[in-house]
Amino acid sequence: MRRFVADKTRNLVRRASTCSPTCPVSPRPHHPPSLLSQPTSPPFSSSSPSHPSSITSPLRFLTAAALHPLSFPASPNSMASNYSTTPVTLQSVNPKVLKCEYAVRGEIVTLAQKLEQDLKQNPDSHPFDEVLALCDHPAILDRSETQGLFSADAIERAFQILDQIPGRATGAYSHSQGIKGLRETIAAGIAERDGFPADPNDIFLTDGASPAVHMMMQLLIRSEKDGILCPIPQYPLYSASIALHGGTLVPYYLDEATGWGLEISELKKQLETAKSNGVCVRALVVINPGNPTGQVLAEDNQCEIVEFCKNEGLVLLADEVYQENIYVPDKQFHSFKKVSRSMGYGEKNISLVSFQSVSKGYYGECGKRGGYMEVTGFSPEIREQIYKVASVNLCSNISGQILASLVMNPPKVGDESYESYTGEKDGILSSLAKRAKTLEDALNSLEGVTCNRAEGAMYLFPRIDLPHKAIKAAEAAKTAPDAFYARRLLDATGVVVVPGSGFGQVPGTWHFRCTILPQEDKIPAIVSRLTEFHKKFMDEFRD
Amino acid sequence: MSSKPLDYENLNKNVKECQYAVRGELYLRASELQKEGKKIIFTNVGNPHALGQKPLTFPRQVIALCQAPFLLDDPNVGLVFPADAIARAKHLLSMTSGGLGAYSDSRGIPGVRKEVAEFIERRDGYPSDPELIFLTDGASKGVMQILNAIIRGEGDGVLVPVPQYPLYSATISLLGGTLVPYYLEETANWGLDVNNLRQSVAQARYKGITVRAMVIINPGNPTGQCLSEANLKDVIKFCYQESLVLLGDEVYQQNIYQDERPFISARKVLMDMGPPINKELQLVSFHTVSKGYWGECGQRGGYFEMTNIPPKSVEEIYKVASIALSPNVPGQIFMGLMVNPPKPGDISYERYVRESKAVLESLRKRAHIMTDGFNSCRNVVCNFTEGAMYSFPQIRLPPKAIEAAKKAGKVPDVFYCLKLLEATGISTVPGSGFGQKEGVFHLRTTILPAEEDMPAIMASFKKFNDEFMEQYEDHKGYSRM
């Protein structure tokens, strides 16, 4: 399967890189490229001829891509003329769509997602399957044969959940915030986690955490004068969403030298710069644990962040989808809700939106699209508006809603499933920790590569000091240097990584993101292939 | 406390302006009353399972097996699940990239998209390309994605029928575009007149709007009318001449309650028209698992199919779809099953046909019961529900009622619907939520309440309506001699 995937990717990459970009004859105003652009990239590169001028001077210096204006891969003339009079062409499609980029996507990287399925291929790691199956087919619940197929407490749990669904109709649209009983379960789970109460009316269940992020961006962004502070490196959902909604991304740099630390002084500096450029900064995005960087924030750091948002009147958008992925004994997850409440800040003091998902953790149910946001510190009028926007899509999928409630309310001590559940969970998490360490060590042993430890999440984000010869070769191939390395790596080993420029990085530095998800027994082979490739690469390009 | 970003006055204006009446004022009031213990009949949204319609057995069997694949290895599985469901589950699971819990291709599982393409080909007689079919979390998400690609700013207009399903008005509003209404003709059974279209477009252009797309909802929501082939041809020609992309909302294609105008897809008509138009007119068609006789609203399964959209635009649409990583996989499974149901000879075939027929026959019956029931009420005129799931009677409100509404600070049909709700527990959506001609009022209800409950519901409505009209009508000829 991997060979097939690698071959397919190679072909795609070859096809894309042989498209030679041509610049249109008429002079085009030079526009600052978007934050995450690469000079050329496979099918999804974009150049928007009528790119709205945005306040992007901080962005200009972020990548070497600033040296190269974006350009289209050549399109045969005949194709263009066939469609030139139709309403939806590249020239007339919404430019915000063209502008937005999402490096984690595209065929090459979709294949990367497939590798993430390794988490799901472990046949024993399915703690919630039975309950979901029963909820999907309640007709069999009363039959005695069912008891031969399903465990007793899965059946009981299914009954409990179905009793919270009017008419046991899992095929019906639910309340637009999600089924009330499930939200109550989730609120109870949050309260148990944090030691502070949670209100089911603050919870909006969504098809994964991503739609919830989009909703908040929609609410916050009125025009390109509205800015959102985002960490660099960041998960490119944020940059893409901000672009789609026509806003401005205001970057703040995480400090690689201090394990990707988040400095308040950096936040303050970027906020001031944005303000002086006429940008109205509305919110701060914090990803904890971080993606791609994996750092887990220290509690006092979190207090500073809360204080900062409160003083500057910013909405705190806390992406906490990796809260169950922590691999180091010296760090712990603390939700921003808990931290704010511990500081004595309540509803009237801090506007906070916390995002959670069923896609990560030890459950990894990405395909179910389950997630929620907990919205606190907003007036009832705002809540009505959020509700209104949620209601246009009627509701999120029920299966995902049920899963979210199971994730936030797993088996407890004394439950029949508790032991097997804990066994599965601990097994998965300790395996992830092991894999993180093994890969981190392997990467650090490579020439010119330094890799911070993965304290949490699912990724490693090593930095490579690429020799000048490699950088020149990349330029000649009209690719960003980290993409050049990644492509070579793919060709030689079949290992798919995402170039750091997809996430943002300090200009002149190069990274790539890889997951820690390949099965334990496959890791030695991956490490040796990677090591061999890297040595050959450095031999070829060493200065 | 200084002004904060999510204070009401600082919110994105587009959010504040968009409206979605289906879960708006009436629904919220109905929910309040329900909490207070009043029995409410929710007819505000096409949500069949919430009103007692049972899910079809076969898809639920298959999805349960897909959710818990360990069952497939259990020797006792055959005691609870039929062999064809087991086989289908295995087949579908093999098409996923790691079971239901794994992100799929952002466009949807390729195997399912292929089955959708085959369904379309069987239905229309023309091949369909799976690469141009994207699965989505419900058809609504697909509509939002496509409109997002089309609308650049308020200078861009989208032709939308009035009355319309307010997903369109809400989304256009959220995206900062302009809705260009074209009126359906109530007296001609909600017919679509191309002259109305031309007029609407001319007016919009006069105001400086670039009209980019045209939405048709066929069968209509809330109006239920089924477009004739001739009508579809006219629409297609019109879009071609005016350089509009046609958006065909066909989610109710399996809900047809008359035999004069069976469903015919916009794509089939387009292909039948031959070159050059069949290769040039840009069309996006939408479908779902939420309607028909499946009614699996909660699964959030849908797709859109693109015709004559240039590859680079398709790539951009793919790019945006990929930000959400993938549509939910169980919903995709439902879609795969819907387009490829049990066939003659399959173990589950007879039961499947029996269950499906029962639902459709009952819906047809209920369409009649409701239409006739409304028409027997004072000052109420109701076109027959030819298709979809709704009834949209016109309520001729007397002037005194309209005055009373104004005094209460309510739009007249909202006023009527609130009174109806309070008196009878019937929760409807006022016609103003869908758009209507000035001074003409309607309400939308679904035809989904159970058949056995219908007579009582219609009687309850009639009682309320006739008393309301009695109360507010002018009694001419009343002499005080």
Automatic annotation (TrEMBL), chain A:
It comes from the Eukaryota. Keywords: Aminotransferase, Pyridoxal phosphate, Transferase. Pathway: Photosynthesis; C4 acid pathway. Residues 33-52 have a biased composition (Low complexity). Its cofactor is pyridoxal 5'-phosphate. Homodimer. This is Alanine aminotransferase 2-like isoform X2. The gene is LOC113742652.
Automatic annotation (TrEMBL), chain B:
It comes from Coffea arabica (Arabian coffee). Homodimer. Gene3D superfamilies: 1.10.287.1970, Aspartate Aminotransferase, domain 1, Type I PLP-dependent aspartate aminotransferase-like (Major domain). The lineage of its organism: Eukaryota, Viridiplantae, Streptophyta, Embryophyta, Tracheophyta. Belongs to the class-I pyridoxal-phosphate-dependent aminotransferase family. Alanine aminotransferase subfamily. GO terms for biological process: L-alanine catabolic process; photorespiration. GO terms for cellular component: peroxisome. Its cofactor is pyridoxal 5'-phosphate. This is Glutamate--glyoxylate aminotransferase 2. It holds the Pfam family Aminotran_1_2. Transmembrane segments: none annotated.
